[in-house]
Design brief:
Elements lengths: L8 H6 L13 E4 L7 H6 L9 E6 L5 H6 L7 E5 L7 H14 L6 E6 L1 H13 L11 E2 L9 E5 L13 E3 L4 E5 L7 E4 L9 H19 L6 H19 L4 H20 L5 H13 L3 H9 L7 H13 L14 H12 L2 H8 L3 H4 L2 H10 L1
Parallel strand pairs: 1-9, 2-3, 2-4, 4-6, 5-8, 6-9
Antiparallel strand pairs: 7-8
Helix pairs in contact: 4-5, 6-7, 6-8, 6-10, 7-8, 9-10, 9-12, 12-15
The structure holds nicotinamide-adenine-dinucleotide and zinc ion (ZN).
The site of zinc ion (ZN) has 6 residues, from α6.
Length: 375
């Protein structure tokens, strides 16, 4: 299994003697308050024909006339609002792809994903599956995608996950929660308009922002760290500290968190995440707890592994009066704990990054269960 971090353990251990990964990056990006209004111009030059629509997949938080009117919809373009209440699923991707293929004779000109990590991941996966046969679950894993995705544009409306820059789309499949990691996953175009994040409620702002903060801590404290990851991770961490510990003007804070998300994503592109992510995946798999809050629930208890990071995290919680739910695992059975422990310990690369090659000795199942029991 893997999460949003990209390197597999073999790649780290063999990197000195063999080849380095050749990672794709987002080739085009616009940044700036109000830059969303440039979407129409950007799409115009990428439209294949009047018969090949652009499909807009938009977080249903934006389901209102005012927002719909801001979208540059032409010809037979289609607008589909999607709830982000649950994390994206392979079946949901397949259903969208079938619907689009049945409705239009031509492949769409492109897919535009507008929303948080959930919508950004869905849009990436739909763009891949529109040009690759079969079902989404077949592509969960590493470099299983053979043909390029169709043109896809990502527009984040909440900052932190780094999904806008990453080469993965994390999907919950029938058997596993696992990313489609491929060179074709990465967006062709990203629009970073901090104004789109104005409406994010404070708790969600904090949870998703902490995803970024935790990416930095896990990357910077990992054994997989290299100068590439460090340079992005340090910048992202500095921005997170400004955003969550200082009193910045609101627009400056939004700008900076959007760039922190970007740099945090770049940092883990060439390294890995760590313990909080592995343990949080267990919570998400068994209990459906979402990524941002799940990471926070775990991270607060990781002081022995990330002492400075956890101290900063607690300061940030206190500053913003964030109270995390308690007793989340208090009524679980031994079987439930076993499931979560198995999911978490299945993520070798994350543990090796966090604790080194001997990680299995450092984190036996009982020790991990004790962490879950505190959540
Ligand atoms: P999200 O997309 O799940 O959205 C969280 C909530 O915020 C939703 O209720 C949504 O409607 C709301 N929301 C979004 N934008 C808003 C706005 N501008 N105003 C008001 N409400 C708004 O949140 P997220 O934390 O960004 O994404 C989590 C997902 O990202 C998970 O599925 C996780 O697996 C994925 N993820 C992917 C990667 C990657 O590299 N691909 C990395 C990290 C996380
Ligand atoms: Zn994350």
């Amino acid at each position: 299994m893997n999460t949003e971090g990209n390197l597999k353990k073999e790649e780290i251990t063999s990197s000195k003697s063999t080849q380095y990964r050749n990672f794709p990056m987002v080739p085009r990006v616009v940044f700036g308050q109000g830059s969303f209004s440039q979407l129409g111009d950007i799409l115009l030059s990428n439209r294949k024909s009047s018969e090949a629509p652009f499909i807009f997949l938009v977080d249903d938080f934006f389901e209102n006339e005012e927002f719909a009117n801001r979208l540059p919809i032409m010809f037979n373009d289609e607008l589909i609002f999607i709830s982000a209440n649950e994390e994206p699923k392979t079946g949901q991707v397949d259903a969208l792809v079938t619907r689009i293929k049945e409705k239009y004779e031509e492949l769409p000109s492109g897919i535009i994903g507008i929303g948080g990590g959930t919508l950004l991941d869905l849009a990436k996966a739909v763009a891949i599956l529109l040009n690759n046969n079969g079902q989404a679950e077949q592509y969960q894993g590493w470099d299983l995608v053979n043909r390029p995705a169709i043109y896809h544009v990502g527009i984040p409306t909440i900052s932190g996950t780094g999904a806008e820059v990453s080469r993965t789309t994390v999907l919950l499949g029938p058997e596993k929660k696992l990313g489609i990691n491929s060179d074709f996953t990465t967006y062709d175009q990203v629009i970073l308009d901090p104004d789109l994040t104005k409406t994010v409620p404070i708790e969600q702002w904090f949870y998703t922002g902490m995803d970024c903060f935790i990416h930095c801590i896990e990357s910077l404290n990992g054994t997989y760290l290299n100068a590439f990851s460090q340079s992005y991770g340090e910048k992202a961490l500095e921005l997170c500290k400004e955003v969550f510990l200082e009193d910045l003007p609101e627009d400056e804070s939004r700008d900076k968190l959007m760039m922190a998300s970007w740099h945090g994503g770049m940092s883990i592109a060439y390294s890995q995440v760590g313990i909080a992510h592995a343990v949080s995946y267990g919570l998400s798999y068994l209990l459906g707890i979402k990524h941002g809050i799940g990471n926070c629930l775990v991270f607060q208890h990781l002081g022995e592994f990330y002492p400075e990071g956890v101290q900063l995290f607690q300061k940030m919680m206190a500053k913003h009066d964030i109270e995390l739910p308690q007793g989340v695992c208090s009524n679980l059975t031994q079987n439930d704990f076993d499931i979560m422990v198995n999911v978490a310990l299945g993520m070798d690369a994350l543990w090796e990054n966090a604790l080194g090659k001997e990680w299995k000795k450092i984190m036996p199942p009982e020790r991990l269960q004790a962490i879950y029991q505190r959540i």
